[in-house]
Amino acid sequence: MEAAIELIPKVKRKAKQKWTTEEILNLMEERRCAKGNKEKYEQIHKKVQEKCNMSKENWINEKCKEIEQQRKHAPQTMYRNIEEITGKRTFLATGCKKAMNGDSIIDKEKNLREVGRIHKRTL
Predict the structure, then answer these.
(1) What share of the chain is helix, strand, coil (3-state, %, to 5)?
(2) 92-105 b/e (C-beta count within 10 Å ≥ 16 → b)
(3) Contact at 8 Å (CB) between 96 and 107?
(4) In sequence order, which residues have a C-beta less than 8 Å from that of residue 23 and are 6 or more positions away?
(5) Rounded to two decimals, what is the model's pTM?
(6) I want to staple 31 with a disulfide (CB 3.0 to 4.6 A). Which of 23, 44, 90, 110 is the partner?
(7) Distances (CA, A) of 95 to 68, 91, 92, 98, 104
């Protein structure tokens, strides 16, 4: 086991959120190591939460300033930044077909019947 620890490098954790800084990642690692000591863990956890909240707020403020600047000159980039902040993506195809009456068609047999109806109407 010791040979494996020496030979295999430790994987460095990556930030999952765009506002996570190296300092926050280091605090998270320190918090993970302090799981045995409840008081120290809670103290570090509180620091991590405060740093994350401040970092997220600063990141959102910077993005909002960018959006305000891009409003007149680069609307496409502006909308891309808005999607980045809100986390909403628009998808064109949902993979679910709709019948002529508006009901969703999930069943294969119903789908075939509906395609037959549409085909007859077009002829």
Answers:
(1) 65, 5, 30
(2) eeeeeeeeeeeeeb
(3) no
(4) 51
(5) 0.58
(6) 44
(7) 36, 10, 9, 10, 10
